[in-house]
Design a protein that fits this description.
- With 492 residues, the chain is an alpha/beta fold.
- It has 2 domains: 4-250 and 455-474, Aldehyde Dehydrogenase, Chain A, domain 1 (3-Layer(aba) Sandwich), CATH 3.40.605; 255-436, 3-Layer(aba) Sandwich (Aldehyde Dehydrogenase, Chain A, domain 2), CATH 3.40.309.10.
- It has 15 helices and 23 strands.
- The chain has helices spanning 42-60, 64-78, 82-93, 97-120, 159-168, 182-195, 209-218, 231-240, 264-276, 296-309, 328-343, 377-380, 396-404, 419-428, 463-468, and strands spanning 4-5, 8-10, 13-15, 22-26, 33-38, 125-127, 134-142, 145-149, 172-176, 202-204, 224-228, 245-249, 255-258, 288-292, 347-350, 367-370, 387-393, 408-409, 411-415, 433-436, 452-453, 456-457, 470-478.
- Helix 1 packs across helix 7, helix 2 runs antiparallel to helix 5 and helix 2 (64-78) packs across helix 6 (182-195).
- The model has no long low-confidence stretch (mean pLDDT 97).
- It binds NADP nicotinamide-adenine-dinucleotide phosphate.
- NADP nicotinamide-adenine-dinucleotide phosphate binds next to helix 7 and helix 8.
Length: 492
């Protein structure tokens, strides 16, 4: 396969890094070098931020109609390339081609949905509480320059939830994708360029998080920052960002809780889907399976059957369910967690080791580990791989305690036939969403998305994305007298 060469996009130009430095993207599927890209230094990021700063007012002054039409045109610019860009996604990320096609295609309705949300955003008009002759007119205004930093597990879907949305809210954007999946980001920005945006309003920088990402986080001309990635990186970013408006979409260890009255066959299918889809590299994967000990044996048998059906293979083939994992540190983490569980007494029932007959060492099969406890890494943290760790509980209170223990609170799920018990658990589980009778892996365009505790700050999706990329301003309109000398009215 010929080595492709891509550039960054700064101030309306495709460009190399000022230093001339580059880095390679290697395919987890074949091991081949796919592309070379510029390795941005801090000076490149500053140039992108300056360009964004200069362009921001122009974007903000576009009408809502003009801004919504940008989103429509980006969606149209993606459509002709769906198959080619899905294949590039599979090659750089490793996910099966069927999942890649869905991911790229899903960006289109997502962008169109956001444009509709922008068009329908409403702000109230209030009557003055203590001064009847005063009216408060509320407006939503852009933040200014917004940095968007994204991970490698959904290189299309996650940027497509933020980048264009920030732009159509009137912000200028500097986008830094993950270094193992920048090719998808380049294609996305090609579509944005084709849609036509004011020069400097959209910028793409490629390069390491530790330098390029860090400059974006620390740069004082950046007003808003939207980060998706690991909890530890998010904590560091929160520490360094200063007084920017930050949104953090972080890790999860979402438990799927199976009660003794659940439909066990459905639960087993949902467990397999939420554990093995995208090779388990999903923030809202079924990170842990908590099962009532009375139905443990029956459920374990069914999950093992399901796990054996997930075919590991070349992700370019339509019949493949599980491709390679994206990168070596992530597969090493999976190995470390499984080994830790086994050392402490857990049992590998299905899978449990790297495949040795593949073009790279990053293929890991669907795995079921039984007898997991909260002392084990599999039972108390985010594994981020195709592993279903089975833990048991005796009472609902115990299930809630174990579920909430790691203080990750992104998505959790409950399987039960009893509505009362579902409501009780939904009340007690500390998570941004609680799913009843579906996998933890659940996302839609129009409900708020985001975590409690270590899973992040803020809410996005639907109108919440539009709200997170804007600030409220109040215009106070007085048609009466002004306060006279000595008046202390309404002075805080
Ligand atoms: P990561 O290592 O935290 O990296 C995420 C992004 O941040 C990458 O672009 C990375 O650049 C950059 N980065 C790294 N260090 C940085 C720093 N010090 N300053 C600024 N930027 C920095 O996460 P990941 O491994 O890519 O993604 C997996 C994690 O994301 C999992 O924990 C998963 O749960 C979480 N996630 C959460 C959601 C959600 O909606 N809550 C969605 C998807 C994923 P480089 O690639 O160059 O290092």
């Amino acid at each position: 396969m010929p080595l492709a060469s891509y550039r960054m996009y700064i101030d309306g130009e495709w460009c190399h890094a000022t230093s001339g430095a580059t880095f390679d993207v290697r395919s987890p599927v074949t091991g081949e070098r796919l592309a070379t890209l510029p390795e941005a230094g801090r000076e490149d990021v500053r140039r992108a931020v300056d360009a964004a700063r200069a362009a921001q007012r122009t974007v903000a002054r576009l009408s809502i109609k003009e801004r919504a039409e940008i989103a429509y045109r980006v969606a149209e610019a993606i459509r002709p390339h769906l198959d080619a860009w899905a294949l590039d996604l599979t090659l750089e990320q490793g996910k099966p081609i069927r999942e890649a096609r869905t991911e790229v295609a899903e960006t289109i309705p997502n962008l169109l949905w956001s444009a509709e949300d922008l068009k329908r955003i409403e702000t109230p008009t209030l009557e003055g509480y203590s001064k009847p002759e005063t009216t408060y007119l509320l407006r939503r205004e852009p933040l200014g320059v917004v940095g968007v930093i994204t991970p490698w597990n959904y290189p299309w879907l996650i940027p497509a939830e933020f980048v264009v949305q920030a732009l159509i809210c009137g912000n200028a954007v500097v986008f830094k994708p993950a270094s193992t999946t920048p090719i998808s980001a380049v294609h996305f920005v090609e579509a944005i360029e084709k849609a036509g945006v004011p020069r400097g309003a959209m910028n793409l920088i490629t390069g390491p998080g530790s330098t390029a990402g860090r400059e974006l986080v620390e740069n004082r001309s950046v007003d808003g920052l939207c980060f998706t990635g690991e909890t530890s990186t998010g904590e560091e970013i929160a520490h360094r960002a200063g007084l920017k408006k930050i949104g953090l979409e972080l890790g999860g260890a979402g438990p799927l809780i199976v009660l003794d009255d659940a439909d066990l066959s459905k639960a087993a299918r949902d467990i397999a889907f939420g554990c093995f889809n995208n090779a388990g590299q999903v923030c809202c994967a079924n990170g842990r399976i908590l099962v009532d000990e009375r139905v443990h044996d029956r459920l374990a048998t069914k999950v093992a059957e399901e796990a054996r059906r997930w075919r590991l293979g070349d992700p370019r083939e339509e019949s493949t369910d599980l491709g390679p994992m994206n990168n070596e540190p992530t597969i090493e983490k999976v190995e470390r967690h499984v080994a830790d569980g086994v050392r402490q007494g857990a049992t590998v029932v299905v899978g449990g080791h790297r495949a040795i007959d593949r073009p790279t060492r990053q293929y890991y099969p669907a795995t079921l580990v039984d007898g997991v406890t909260t002392d084990m890494l599999l039972g108390n943290s985010e594994t981020f791989g195709p592993v279903a760790p089975l833990l048991t509980f005796r009472t609902l209170d115990e299930a809630v305690e174990v579920a909430n223990l790691p203080r990750y609170g992104l998505s959790m799920a409950v399987h039960t036939a009893n509505l009362q018990r579902a409501f009780r658990l939904a009340r007690d589980l500390k998570a941004g969403q609680v799913v009843v009778n579906d996998p933890v892996l659940y996302w839609d365009y129009n409900h708020p998305w985001g975590g409690f505790g270590r899973s992040g700050l803020g809410r996005v999706a639907g109108r919440w994305t539009i709200e997170s990329f804007t600030e409220i301003k109040t215009m106070i309109l007085n048609i009466g007298e002004s306060p006279g000398p000595g008046s202390s009215e309404n002075v805080p």
